[in-house]
């Protein structure tokens, strides 16, 4: 279980992986998807996201979040690791509502970071069970507070980096950022896997 | 006066009988399910069994690579889930599976058979042999060439089993075959409730005593069927995925017989069923099977990649168009198919292509059948189970490993099925002749010889 994958996690084709000096010395993760599947994800031009949203991404998110395929958290671990390994700020993944998380059995943002071997802390908690995707643009932008600080959470006068899987209008990230800034954070930046 | 107790909704019983279902995915109200559980109408088992070895209790997958361990937020410990049958809703350590053991649905014993066709002497003989096996309750292998009329000769046996009050399942490896069989069975048994299950099938109500399903869908049944028929048992993916074989065993009751029906049985299957075996070497119209011929198409892949259709292939297609004959052209890979389709559309704009993940696959095949389009390019998904009048067939890249002997026999079997068009072309365009190609040709020639002796 959870060993090197012999088959592509997305299309189940056999993976041909020969470790090279480069992969060994640079301590790369072994690949878990094939080159063909990899080629369908388009890198984002934005500085605050890794990928663009497209059909392949839609299928990925569906399988990962809706079909609860936790194994897919590994798909972007190399890219996420490269992005965050030099990061000085404290990384905070956007939390799910505890009830929602229990329903899905895992937090998708935390699993992405765990798979990429990136340490993170959690200071926020979600207060609503409504999903952003069920609302239209106006409703999203005018929505009531989505987050609050966890009880006994200590926000220091430091830099923070919020991480989420996808950004569409940016409402979720804006709400979370505001809570942290009001609690005394020096600076809060945001980063997402996908730019919607 | 109101009745305060709980009554079992018949729909719940009809749905759950014979099924193995995730508790979280049941379509019924939580209250009803809880009540049924309290009354011990359900047998509840773990989704993933750990002892003696890790196994998914729905799809019987026990390959460790298909399991993933994760930190579960629901039970706050490490849980394991099965990736093999993920698309049917995730089965994990903490998701219980429900198996019905409550009151049984009532089975109807009247299933009038309205089929007026006439079986040939050979078909009748095989049908009788099959029926004898059904009556005796023993397994049977029916080997009949493509276009022998296998479906029709099942009617008698299915009819007998249904009227005995048995639950019958006809499983086929592919959704296309299920979709082809469904209307034929519904026509033959107009008063019988028949359910057809395949990925993406609509919701169907009631308790069906006759079920047509893809072998994948059998994961969702347990101890359900008293008679199990497996059509095209040698086809991908059935013969490539051991869990499907186990699914067939799991879906039937422990002493139910299995009937294999195929045009290309493997030697092991033949050896297994030596004493209850029927063979039909002839087509129902007594004309010999079209014999494939080989035609070299050197470097076809390079040529197509350069955007040029090989001359011989182009000539063949143009001839079909000129003669107004519908055609199917098989390709070994989806990539090559996608490269080739614009080249073909330059010859005739209405030529279309289908592959496994094409959402319009059903519609496109129908268009070809209704003569609305001149031809279709396809991958091996259409190799079996489809019947199109006067269709002509070409295989591009017949040397590819995906075209096994049985696949080629099946592909050749698409041709000349209609009684008024008993002949047609099967051409294997190749970049070198393989053993599989020779074997397919030899097999067809041998069947034709046996068929002519049998007359």
TrEMBL record, chain A:
Record Gene3D superfamilies: 3.40.50.2020
Family of the protein in this entry: Belongs to the ComF/GntX family.
PANTHER family, alphabetized: DNA UTILIZATION PROTEIN YHGH
Protein name: ComF family protein
Lineage: Bacteria, Bacillati, Bacillota, Bacilli, Bacillales
Automatic annotation (TrEMBL), chain B:
Record bears the keyword Nucleotide-binding: yes
Every Helicase ATP-binding domain range: 131-283
UniProt entry tagged with the keyword ATP-binding: yes
PROSITE patterns reported for this sequence: HELICASE_ATP_BIND_1, HELICASE_CTER
One Pfam short name: DEAD
Superkingdom field: Bacteria
InterPro entries cross-referenced by the UniProt entry: DEAD/DEAH_box_helicase_dom, Helicase_ATP-bd, Helicase_C-like, P-loop_NTPase
GO-annotated biological processes: DNA recombination; DNA replication initiation; double-strand break repair
A single GO molecular function term of this UniProt record: 3'-5' DNA helicase activity
Domain Helicase C-terminal: 308-455
Keyword tags: ATP-binding, DNA-binding, Helicase, Hydrolase, Nucleotide-binding
Protein name (Swiss-Prot/TrEMBL): DEAD/DEAH box helicase
Organism lineage: Bacteria, Bacillati, Bacillota, Bacilli, Bacillales
């Amino acid at each position: 279980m959870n060993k090197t994958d012999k088959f592509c996690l997305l299309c189940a084709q056999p993976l041909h992986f020969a470790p090279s000096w480069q992969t060994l010395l640079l301590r790369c993760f072994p690949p878990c998807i094939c080159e063909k599947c990899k080629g369908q994800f388009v890198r984002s031009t934005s500085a605050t996201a890794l990928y663009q949203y497209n059909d392949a991404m839609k299928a990925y998110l569906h399988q990962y979040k809706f079909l609860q395929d936790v194994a897919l958290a590994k798909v972007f671990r190399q890219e996420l690791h490269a992005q965050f390994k030099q990061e000085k700020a404290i990384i905070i993944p956007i939390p799910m509502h505890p009830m929602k998380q229990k329903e899905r059995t895992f937090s998708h943002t935390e699993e992405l970071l765990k798979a990429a071997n990136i340490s993170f802390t959690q200071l926020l908690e979600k207060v609503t069970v409504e999903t952003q995707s069920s609302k239209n643009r106006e409703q999203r932008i005018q929505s009531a507070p989505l987050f609050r600080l966890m009880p006994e959470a200590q926000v220091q006068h430091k830099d923070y980096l919020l991480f989420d899987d996808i950004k569409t209008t940016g409402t979720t990230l804006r709400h979370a950022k505001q809570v942290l800034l009001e609690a005394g954070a020096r600076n809060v930046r945001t980063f997402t896997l996908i730019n919607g | 006066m109101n009745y305060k107790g709980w009554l079992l909704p018949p729909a719940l019983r009809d749905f759950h009988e014979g099924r193995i279902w995730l508790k979280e995915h049941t379509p019924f109200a939580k209250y009803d399910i809880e009540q049924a559980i309290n009354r011990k109408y359900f047998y509840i088992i773990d989704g993933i069994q750990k002892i003696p070895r890790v196994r998914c209790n729905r799809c019987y997958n026990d390959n460790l690579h298909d399991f993933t361990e994760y930190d579960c937020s629901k039970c706050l410990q490490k849980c394991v889930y099965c990736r093999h049958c993920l698309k049917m809703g995730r089965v994990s350590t903490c998701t219980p599976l429900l198996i019905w053991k409550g009151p049984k649905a009532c089975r109807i014993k009247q299933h009038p058979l309205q089929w007026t066709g006439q079986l040939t002497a050979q078909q009748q003989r095989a049908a009788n042999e099959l029926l004898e096996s059904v009556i005796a309750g023993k397994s049977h292998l029916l080997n009949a060439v493509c276009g022998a009329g296998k479906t029709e000769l099942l009617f008698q046996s299915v009819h007998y089993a249904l009227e005995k009050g048995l639950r019958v399942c006809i499983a086929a490896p592919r959704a296309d075959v299920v979709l082809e069989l469904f209307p034929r069975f519904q026509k033959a048994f107009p008063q019988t409730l028949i359910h057809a299950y395949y990925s993406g099938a609509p919701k169907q109500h009631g308790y069906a005593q006759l079920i047509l399903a893809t072998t994948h869908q059998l994961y969702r049944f347990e101890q359900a069927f008293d008679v199990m028929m497996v059509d095209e048992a040698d086809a991908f993916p059935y013969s490539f995925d051991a869990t499907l074989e186990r699914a067939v065993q799991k879906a039937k009751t422990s002493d139910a017989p299995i009937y294999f029906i195929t045009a290309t049985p493997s030697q092991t299957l033949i050896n297994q069923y030596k004493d209850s075996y029927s063979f039909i070497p002839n087509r129902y119209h007594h004309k010999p099977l079209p014999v494939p011929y080989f035609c070299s198409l050197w470097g076809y892949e390079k040529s197509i990649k350069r955007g040029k259709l090989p001359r011989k292939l182009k000539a063949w297609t143009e001839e079909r168009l000129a003669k107004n004959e519908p055609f199917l052209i098989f390709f070994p890979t989806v990539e090559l198919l996608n490269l080739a389709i614009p080249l073909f559309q330059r010859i005739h704009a209405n030529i279309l292509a289908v592959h496994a993940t094409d959402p319009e696959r059903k519609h496109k095949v129908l268009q070809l059948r209704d003569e609305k389009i001149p031809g279709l390019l396809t991958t091996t998904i259409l190799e079996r189970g489809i019947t199109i009048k006067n269709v002509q067939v070409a295989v591009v890249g017949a040397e590819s490993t995906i075209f096994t002997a049985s696949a080629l026999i099946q592909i050749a079997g698409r041709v000349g099925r209609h009684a008024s068009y008993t002949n047609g072309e099967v051409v294997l365009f190749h970049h070198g002749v393989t053993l599989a190609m020779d074997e397919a040709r030899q097999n067809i020639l041998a069947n034709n010889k046996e068929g002519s002796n049998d007359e």
